[in-house]
Write a structure and sequence with these properties.
The complex is a heterodimer of chains A (about 325) and B (about 500).
Chain A: H1 3-12, H2 16-32, H3 39-64, H4 72-86, H5 93-120, H6 125-143, H7 153-161, H8 169-186, H9 188-198, H10 200-205, H11 210-236, H12 247-257, H13 269-288, H14 294-320
Chain B: E1 4-14, E2 17-28, E3 32-37, H1 43-50, E4 58-63, E5 66-68, H2 73-78, E6 81-84, H3 96-101, H4 115-126, H5 148-161, E7 166-170, H6 178-193, E8 197-201, H7 205-211, E9 214-219, E10 222-228, H8 234-242, H9 255-263, E11 266-275, E12 278-286, E13 290-294, H10 301-308, E14 314-320, E15 323-325, H11 330-335, E16 338-341, H12 345-349, H13 356-361, H14 374-387, H15 404-416, E17 422-426, H16 434-449, E18 453-457, H17 461-467, E19 470-475, E20 478-484, H18 490-498
Parallel strand pairs in B: 3-8, 3-9, 6-7, 7-8, 13-18, 13-19, 16-17, 17-18
Antiparallel strand pairs in B: 1-2, 1-4, 4-5, 9-10, 11-12, 11-14, 14-15, 19-20
Helix pairs in contact in B: 8-18
Chain lengths: ~325, ~500
């Protein structure tokens, strides 16, 4: 198969590689956790994976549009401390709903700030969001300097035990995200997203509102980060200003495993979700196999480095000949 | 459906460089106007102003007599102006259909794109060029996988799909084969009858004479002539582009140097050199010879110079100083006495924010020992800068504060410190003032007298003619014509660049 055929094959089946990897990982995981397909195990696995899945879906949108958002983890932290401090263990469920709404708005505002800098001020996405990540992380620390706080027990129970129609709650959320992504792909906005990520200049010449599309990707990523923050707060039921720190790198890794090009324009949200599940299982394997947890970070980082380096290595080999 | 568009006294500057100083253009429904001009005369800038990609600094655009102001491509498109871009406005990883209908996708309920309709409409458009496709150009193929002529066709169809009132064809025929050009011209005639206005930007004289009704010639950002196509000949157009009446006369040159240099030994022999943008070039350069390279911009000149400097992967043989060489990187070329003055001074030639001293010594730090004998280095730098009469506040000033001409002197100075035997020049006088140019010319003459061989690409035909005894004209990655002696005239040079045959000039 020549290179062009490969390209169009890869374009038609962007999730193939990640899907194969998922199958392998599940098989490996099966050796450590024989009851992996039972409903309770499945649910307990998926509810741990869910925050990253949601976060990676948002990250995928930004990367598809040609950018990257390093601040999503910090947005998760902000949302976590807002919920943990403002509602509290004995809080009124009514207040929890209100604060969840506030969290969504905060997430979108944080995303809008990123988007403003990147789309309208034309700043480098990676530098900008790296800087704002400290801004948001600092705010989270300001709100909750020491770990603590909490949310009403009913919410964490709900998150843990809800299995609508016999499926884990995470499956329902994933289905909603996939439906929304399927819809977006069918719309004009979806086309704009791929066009802006693919070649922004050509998109501009074709009368695509490039800046608005770029801006919107960061707002979406901020919103998804806020939802992810709500999920993780329900999971751990307490507040910690460092909650999201580990998640940023993982969200980028998940997108990369999912077949989305870091240069933008190719890939999709479904791949990112598969990627997040793969990372979750890798984490499982690492803890079952009694390997030090820093391997988790190592694996995450290695995947990104390899994805970044691959085109350069291929070029080097071509040049040698 | 009638429309008339006029550009009046348009001025456009890019970061201090004047792209257009007084451009004018009129086009009416039902006619084809050819926009003609040499390299860098501002054709592309003017078309980009008309289609809203670039905003003009001064002047006016009149649409049907009313002033309009396009601040974006959207604005121009909504008024029925559509463009076939020279460097294509296609997204590589999207399909043909997605590219053509981008930003105007037909929608069903809920904003969902109607794929069936897009397919049908794309098929209908693709039928326009039926029979000229080499591959199976289908709506669902990705653009990246298409050959360049079919990419160009997709770009044309995309512009047409807007059903524009004014269509700008910017070098739309450049990568098409003759059958495809034929088909395009049939369509242009049809569009004309339907009352569309068409601006045709091209370098190909033969095509301009076939299809255009009127012409407008740009020279150095200024409109210098316009009129009816049937009242002029190729000769007249070339004369307008060239700009003076001496177009036919042989420029005065010193014949003596030519005799001398040709008897000397061969410094560089290149045969069948291919690289990206280069399709098999062979040339010979004598010791102490100043060999010119001409042609339109982007015909492989840059690739040739960079390949010789070991900067691009290539095939073919290079014989330098009598020995076969294959430079793997610029460092090897540099150590063998080759120097390149690159085309983009600010990007490739200089460390813009660093001092003049550092820039001058960058290739030669190794000659000053370890630890560096900074005083020796400073002395060399000040020697070379005074020999070049570099105007500066001091060696420690950053290069970014220098004028274009003085900055270029720094680029040349850094190579002179290494005493090169082969100097590769990529349009070295671009953006350089007249006085510096003159100094530069005498420097080149002196270097050649000292036995340095120079390969000199310039977009300025005048200086090529004035300095060189031999000029190789490049077209599409190949050396198309060699001009020397009697054939070395300005009109021959321009005609060879445009690819016009000698007969059409008579």
């Amino acid at each position: 198969m020549n290179r062009q055929n490969w390209q169009s094959f890869a374009r038609r089946n962007p999730y193939l590689f990640s899907f194969l990897l998922l199958v392998i990982i599940i098989i490996v995981n099966f050796f450590f956790q024989h009851n992996i397909f039972e409903r309770d195990t499945l649910n307990s696995n998926m509810r741990v994976f869910l925050p990253l899945i949601i976060l990676a879906a948002g990250q995928a949108i930004v990367i598809l549009g040609g950018g990257i958002d390093i601040s999503v983890g910090s947005i998760v932290s902000i949302v976590n401390v807002i919920l943990a401090t403002q509602v509290g263990l004995q809080g009124d469920p009514q207040k929890m709903y209100l604060m969840m709404g506030v969290a969504l708005v905060v997430g979108m505002l944080a995303g809008a700030l990123n988007g403003f800098f990147v789309a309208f001020m034309r700043l480098q996405p990676i530098i900008t969001t790296y800087a704002t990540s400290f801004l948001y992380a600092g705010l989270a620390l300001f709100i909750l300097p020491n770990p603590g706080g909490g949310i009403p027990q009913s919410f964490s129970t709900f998150y843990r035990d809800t299995t609508p129609l016999g499926f884990p709650l995470a499956f329902i959320i994933i289905a909603i995200i996939l439906l929304a992504w399927g819809f977006i792909q069918q719309t004009r906005y979806g086309r704009y997203l791929f066009a802006v990520g693919g070649k922004a200049e050509a998109a501009y010449e074709t009368a695509v509102p490039v800046n608005t599309v770029l801006f919107s990707t960061y707002v979406i990523a901020g919103l998804m980060a806020a939802i992810s923050g709500i999920a993780i707060t329900m999971l751990v039921a307490s507040g910690n200003a460092g909650t999201g720190d580990q998640l940023t790198l993982s969200s980028v890794t998940a997108v990369v495993i999912g077949g989305t090009a870091l240069s933008g324009g190719i890939g999709g949200v479904a791949g990112a979700i598969i990627g997040a599940v793969i990372l979750g299982f890798i984490k499982n394997i690492i803890s079952f196999a009694n390997i030090d947890t820093w391997w988790q970070t190592f694996v995450n980082a290695a995947i990104i480095v390899i994805a970044l380096a691959a085109p350069g290595v291929i070029y080097l080999f071509r040049r040698r000949r | 459906m009638s429309l008339s568009l006029s550009a009046r006294n348009v001025v456009k500057r890019y970061a201090g460089v004047i792209a257009l100083s007084d451009a004018n253009l009129d086009v009416n429904a039902g006619e084809v106007v050819a926009l003609i001009g040499a390299n860098g005369s501002g054709k592309s800038t003017l078309s980009k102003i008309i289609n809203g990609v670039v905003v003009l600094d001064r002047g006016q655009l009149l649409l049907d007599g009313k002033p309009v102001n396009f601040s974006s491509p959207q604005a121009a498109k909504s008024l029925g102006i559509s463009t076939v871009f020279q460097d294509l406005s296609l997204i590589p990883h999207m399909t043909v259909a997605e590219n053509i209908w981008l930003s105007r996708e037909p929608q069903k309920w809920g904003g969902i794109v109607d794929r069936g309709q897009i397919r049908e409409k794309t098929d209908a458009l693709l039928d326009l060029f039926t029979g000229t496709y080499k591959s199976s150009l289908r709506p669902e193929v990705t653009v990246a996988s298409l050959p360049s002529d079919e990419k160009q066709i997709v770009e044309i169809l995309k512009a047409v799909s807007f059903d524009p009132k004014l269509l700008i064809l910017d070098e739309a025929t450049a990568s098409l084969d003759s059958r495809q050009v034929e088909r395009l011209f049939e369509m242009v005639v049809h569009w004309k009858q339907n009352g569309k206005a068409i601006i045709f930007v091209s370098h190909r004289m033969e095509e301009i004479f076939r299809i255009a009704d009127r012409y407008s010639v740009l020279r150095n950002g200024k409109t210098v002539g316009s009129g009816e196509m049937k009242e002029v000949k190729t000769k007249d157009i070339v004369a307008l582009m060239v700009g003076d009446k001496s177009a036919e006369s042989v420029v005065e040159r010193k014949k003596k140097t030519q005799q001398n240099s040709l008897n000397r030994k061969m410094q560089l022999e290149v045969s069948d050199l291919s690289a990206e943008g280069l399709k098999g070039v062979s040339l010979k350069l004598h010791e102490g010879e100043l060999l010119g390279i001409g042609g339109l911009k982007g015909q492989g000149q840059r690739s040739l110079l960079h390949t010789l400097f070991g900067d691009l992967v290539s095939t073919g043989t290079i014989k330098f100083d009598g020995a076969l060489v294959k430079f793997k990187n610029p460092r090897q070329a540099m150590n063998n006495g080759v120097a390149l003055v690159p085309g983009e001074r600010a990007k490739e030639g200089l460390l813009f924010i660093r001092s003049i001293l550092e820039n001058l010594l960058l290739p030669s730090w190794g000659n000053y020992g370890f630890p560096t004998h900074i005083r020796d280095a400073q002395k060399s730098a000040s020697d070379v800068s005074s020999s070049l009469s570099l105007k500066m506040a001091g060696l420690d000033e950053p290069v970014s504060g220098l004028s274009g001409g003085n900055a270029q002197k720094v680029v040349i100075g850094k190579w002179l410190l290494r005493n090169p035997r082969l100097l590769l020049l990529d349009d070295p006088t671009k953006g350089v003032d007249v006085g510096t140019k003159a100094e530069f010319y005498s420097l080149l003459t002196k270097l050649c007298a000292d036995g340095v061989s120079v390969l000199f690409y310039s977009s300025d035909d005048e200086e090529l003619l004035a300095l060189c005894d031999r000029i190789l004209v490049m077209h599409d990655g190949l050396i198309r014509t060699e001009l020397a002696g009697e054939s070395l005239t300005k009109s021959n040079l321009v005609a060879a660049s445009l690819g016009a045959s000698q007969e059409s000039m008579q």
